[in-house]
Amino acid sequence: MQAVAGIRRGLTIDPAGEDEAPAERVGRLVRESPVVVFARRGCYMAHVMKRLLAAVGAHATVIELEGAADEVAAAAAAPGAALPTLFVGGAPVGGLEGLMGLHLSGRLVPRLREVGALCA
Description:
Layout: E1 4-9, H1 22-32, E2 35-40, H2 44-55, E3 60-65, H3 68-77, E4 85-88, E5 91-94, H4 96-104, H5 108-114
Parallel strand pairs: 1-3, 2-3
Antiparallel strand pairs: 2-4, 4-5
Helix pairs in contact: 1-3
């Protein structure tokens, strides 16, 4: 069973053909998806985050950022956060450290369940 909901590359490419600014697109993706990871392509920390989320049965949308404009837009959604960054239920969790903190405290699975991100 594939637990990762999807990997999308870049924020500037809009498959629907709509003209949407990267910052607006970030906001929309965070609102529409219960779990979103923004990361640079090939980031090992993002790989660990994806594996942990998959191990607990979470469906995550992974956005691989492809340029400086994408990174600036993602940073605007969570001021002060570095890449990779995770959003759960529209709220910024932080990077790998934030995800691990939630997991080790026992709050990750209940939070994922609350936002509807766990496999049935």
